[in-house]
Amino acid sequence: MTDLTTPPAARPAPAPAPTSFKVRRQSRVMEVEFDDGAQFSLPFELLRVYSPSAEVRGHGAGQEVLQTGKREVEIVALEPVGNYGVKPVFSDDHASGIYTWEYLYQLGRDQSAMWTDYLQRLQLAGYPGDSGRGAGAAPVKSTGSSCGHVH
Q1: Are 122 and 45 in contact (CB under 8 A)?
Q2: What does pTM read for this prediction?
Q3: Of 72, 79, 71, 74, which is closest to residue 91 (Cα–Cα)?
Q4: Are 43 and 49 in contact (CB under 8 A)?
Q5: Residue 64 contacts by C-beta under 8 Å, 6 or more apart in sequence?
Q6: Which of 38, 146, 61, 56 is nearest to 99 (CA)?
Q7: Which candidate, 68, 136, 61, 52, places its Cα nearest to that of 100?
């Protein structure tokens, strides 16, 4: 159905659509090529910690759940969802996130900033370095020193 009430110049451009998916299990990346020529290599861990599911995002602002211990997560299946997205099934049994083409494109385009944000959130939660990424991750408890460093 065509929207005849909005002038063509004011309509949003359709999101780029993927033309190719490759799940690289050994290197733990999903390679996605889009019809505008963009190509992204998305680490499974990034896909998992930024899952668009309610389990990760919550049901509103401030309800996000920080994902830890996902460095070794794998994609065991990739299911199509209509003509607009895919649903990865991860090795930790997470399978409720639907990744639209637009969201996959955003993950690829903004990957560097999203990694930085994720690592900062791990630090704020008490995980030194990138320790929150490994299996069995546990935050370091503060000793209460006033300088802000863990001694």
Answers
A1: no
A2: 0.82
A3: 74
A4: no
A5: 56, 57, 58
A6: 56
A7: 52
pLDDT in tens, 29-71: 999 999 999 999 999 999 999 999 988 988 877 788 999 999 9
Residue closest to 117 by CA, chosen among 41, 28, 50, 61: 50
Contact 75, 90 (CB under 8 A): yes
Tokens of 30: 């999903």
Which residues have CB under 8 Å from 19's CB, separation 6+?
Answer: 33, 34, 35
The percent of residues in the chain predicted with pLDDT above 70, rounded, is 85
Residue 7 to residues 13, 16, 127, Cα–Cα distance (Å): 12, 21, 51
Instruction: Using only the alpha carbons of the chain, give its radius of gyration.
Output: 18
Q: Using alpha carbons only, what angle is made at residue 105 by residues 137 and 51, rounded to the nearest 5 degrees? A: 30
Q: How do residues 66-80 score in pLDDT, each as one tens digit?
A: 999 999 999 999 999
Q: How many CA atoms lie less than 13 Å away from 25 in the CB half-sphere? A: 8
How are strands ordered across the β-sheet holding 85-90?
75-81, 85-90, 99-100
Q: How far is CA 39 from the centre of its chain?
A: 16
